[in-house]
Amino acid sequence: MSIATPYLLFLGDAPDQLAAKVAQGIRDWRPEFALGQIRLEGCRADLGLPDMSLAEAKAAGAKTVVIGVANRGGVISQAWKKVLVQALEEGFDLASGLHNLLRDEEDLAAVARATGRTLHDVRVPSVKYPIANGVKRSGKRMLAIGTDCSVGKMYTAIAMERVMRERGLNADFRATGQTGILITGDGVPLDAVIADFMAGSIEWLTPDNDPNHWDLIEGQGSLFHVSYSGVTLALIHGGQPDALILCHEPTRPHMRGLPDYPLPTLEALRDLGLQLARVANPACRVVGISINTAAMTQPEAEAYCAEVEARMGLPTVDPVRHGPGRLVDALAAL
Amino acid sequence: MSIATPYLLFLGDAPDQLAAKVAQGIRDWRPEFALGQIRLEGCRADLGLPDMSLAEAKAAGAKTVVIGVANRGGVISQAWKKVLVQALEEGFDLASGLHNLLRDEEDLAAVARATGRTLHDVRVPSVKYPIANGVKRSGKRMLAIGTDCSVGKMYTAIAMERVMRERGLNADFRATGQTGILITGDGVPLDAVIADFMAGSIEWLTPDNDPNHWDLIEGQGSLFHVSYSGVTLALIHGGQPDALILCHEPTRPHMRGLPDYPLPTLEALRDLGLQLARVANPACRVVGISINTAAMTQPEAEAYCAEVEARMGLPTVDPVRHGPGRLVDALAAL
User: Fold this and answer.
1) How far is CA B39 from the centre of its chain?
2) Are B243 and B136 in contact (CB under 8 A)?
3) Set of chain B residues whose Cβ sits within 8 Å of the Cβ of A237
4) Which of B102, B90, B16 is nearest to B53 (CA)?
5) How far is B183 from chain A, CA to nearest CA, in Å?
6) Low-confidence residues of chain B: pLDDT under 70
7) Residue B103: how many CB atoms within 10 A of its CB?
8) Which of A3, A18, A97, B154 could serve as a FRET partner for B212 with CA atoms 20 to 30 Å apart?
9) Using N-to-C axis directions, what is the helix angle for B229-239 and A198-205, rounded to 10°?
10) What is the pLDDT of residue B70?
């Protein structure tokens, strides 16, 4: 993968700030990659970055135009095309996490070929991954696992990276989904990897490293989510984590998209996750709990985290409200 | 997929009987599909079927030439090509489980286009599978799960199908690997499915059915094999089995291809498999144990099965030595 940085962030005609959440993620987590933004008429998102023309961004050193916005109706419009074609002609690569691929747009593909530029479609793998061999690797690894999908696993891992780097610790967030890949410029689009190579792709993503280095691996799916559980188990066995962090959103009535499936308890996630992780790494431990309390009031959130911490005997925080510092403490104490 | 039957089995220049094991599987399990064999000079395999020319097979009603032999060095030789091209020209489809795909051979692809015939490469999916929705389906399902890879899961399921049909029970073996797909003419090549669609492909393979119908699902990998465990879990959650059968080969020194990984006990497989299966189907039960005793003497095999049966309290057989009748009894008693 390895997308050339820094970026010019393309916001297109984003109808609101939420539509530009990929660009916002880059702005938040890799501000050094976010040189500027380029917006079309009608754009209602603003990252607080300088508005730049392609020429200005080029002069400032930008290498890749990243599509940081969802497209409407799955169509790459002519208004977008005009800017994207011009970007290729002016020497930028393009990067996108859209469902419809840049490479499938005949005009973009033709201009990229003619100009020798690269179209990065981060939803599809660009690497031939190996089959996992299970050999123990040097360095240390943390994996975030969840009671459900979309409970804050990516946020937890990337927020821990920031705090660990601030403390001078040796840590890298390892992206396994398209947003994380666009943020960091690298990673594995695990949900698009062929079944036999899933665990091997995670071994590839988290290779041998310094003894004190931590890979902070973005989790996917849940062992308890029947649509995606196989992906989760491949992450656990390919990642061979030394530490697990349990992620949970307490207000869900049922598993995401599965009305008949109740959420598991944190105890069930701890026990099952640990049992499976110890197949690949017998020393694995659960070190902390990350709660997404966005739907709770401050007093509710505090009471909930305190109750879980007392019940489970593990540091329990909302990394947005409280910061992930206590989770980092727990990793460092391992 | 749906390969047109019956078949003419192409044995090529197979150096020995083992090289033709895919053809042998079709001969053993779907004799009604196996009209005849076609062999090249030097072939040392013999299925005991009539040797037929393409014209004779055509006259006898064969629809597809199945490559029932492994190729040497991953190359489709000119000697093979000559027969395969002629087969297309005479109106046969071709089916293959070879690693190198028929469709990637320019001459075969061109002749197939010109003649309107189909090249079935069963290692790659031909269907756009859905994402699993976890909705409870009608009918009943059995899944074979193993302590390791290659311990007899396919054999167990297909042998049970035969006995169930002999008894007038309503059952279908559901193939999830290339050999099983070539044998039955249909199935899901699960190891080649994209991660997000694994569980959905198994829901697709085992749809709603009559209340007394059994899908006998071919297992893949093992929950304890770090290279492929994600595939196994997708089978468990996509298959939502009512019954699990545990498969084991007692003489392995370690997990297949993983020298540092010991085999789990049957108790560990039972407990973990059942816990995970009950996420999708709370009524799931472990009904029996299938032991591959090929590496044991008759007295060793009898003693081993008796010991396991006493210890686990479940019918325990080697389906090759003893037949799978007692496993079928256990299913029927559910």
Assistant:
1) 24
2) no
3) 226-227, 229-230
4) B90
5) 22
6) 1
7) 15
8) B154
9) 140
10) 84
Interface ipTM > 0.90: yes
Element holding A201 (H helix, E strand): helix A198-205
Q: With H, G, I as helix, E, B as strand and everything else as coil, classify residue B43.
A: coil
Distance CA A142, CA A239 (A): 8
Spatial CB neighbours of B96, under 8 Å, sequence gap ≥ 6: B66, B67, B102, B119, B120, B121, B122
- How many whole angstroms separate alpha carbon A190 and alpha carbon A169? 27
- Nearest residue in A to B238, CA atom: A226
Separation CA A114–CA A180 (nearest Å): 30
Beta strands in A224-278 (DSSP E): 243-248
Task: Label the pairing between strands A140-146 and A243-248.
Answer: parallel
pLDDT at B72: 76
pLDDT in the model for residue B300? 98
Strand A93-96 with A64-67, pairing? parallel
Contacts of A7 (CB under 8 A, 6+ apart): A26, A33, A34, A35, A62, A63, A64, A65, A66, A95
Q: Which amino acid is at A79?
A: A
CA angle A21, A22, A28 (to 5 degrees): 80
Contact (Cβ atoms closer than 8 angstroms) between residue A183 and residue A161: no
Q: Let me know how long chain B is.
A: 334
Give the chain A residue nearest B136 (alpha carbons): A260
At B199, list the tokens: 């569980």
Question: How far is Cα A217 from Cα B334, in angstroms, rounded to an integer?
Answer: 43
Is residue A74 predicted with pLDDT exceeding 80? no
Q: Which two tokens stand for residue B85?
A: 């091209």
Taking the C-alpha atoms of residue B152 and residue B196, their distance in angstroms, rounded to an integer, is 27
**Beta-ladder partners of B67:** B10
Residues of A with CB under 8 A from a CB of B: 131-136, 190-196, 198-200, 223-224, 226-234, 237-238, 240, 257-258, 260-261, 272, 275-276, 279-280
Q: What is the mean pLDDT of chain A?
A: 96
Q: How far is CA A87 from CA A79, B39, B308, in A?
A: 13, 59, 68
* Pairwise CA distance, residues B277 & B238, whole Å: 10
Closest-CA distance of chain B to residue A243, Å: 17
pLDDT digits (tens, 9 = 90+) for B212-270: 999 999 999 999 999 999 999 999 999 999 999 999 999 999 999 999 999 999 999 99
Q: Taking 80 as the threshold, does the pLDDT of residue A73 lie above it?
A: no
Can you spell out the DSSP letters for A128-141? -PPPP-----SSEE
- Asked whether the beta carbons of B76 and B40 are under 8 A apart, the reply is no
SS3 B100: coil
What single string gives the DSSP state of each residue in B196-211?
GGHHHHHHHHS-S--T
Q: What is the pLDDT of residues A184-196, one digit of tens each?
A: 999 999 999 999 9
- Those residues of chain B whose CB sits closer than 8 Å to some CB in chain A are 131-136, 190-196, 198-200, 223-224, 226-234, 237-238, 240, 255, 257-258, 260-261, 272, 275-276, 279-280
Phi/psi of residue A115, nearest 5 degrees? -95, -5
**Residue A98 structure tokens:** 């859209």
| Shortest Cα distance, chain B CAs vs residue A211, angstroms | 21
How many residues are given for chain A? 334
Crossing angle of helices A298-312 and A266-280, in 10° steps, is 50
CA–CA distances in Å: residue A84 to residues A26, A44, A90, A96, A111? 19, 19, 10, 11, 10
Taking the CB of residue A259, how many other CB atoms lie within 10 A of it?
10
**Residues of chain A contacting residue B190, judged by C-beta atoms under 8 Å apart:** 195
Phi-psi region of B8 (alpha: psi -120 to 50; beta: other; left: phi over 0): beta
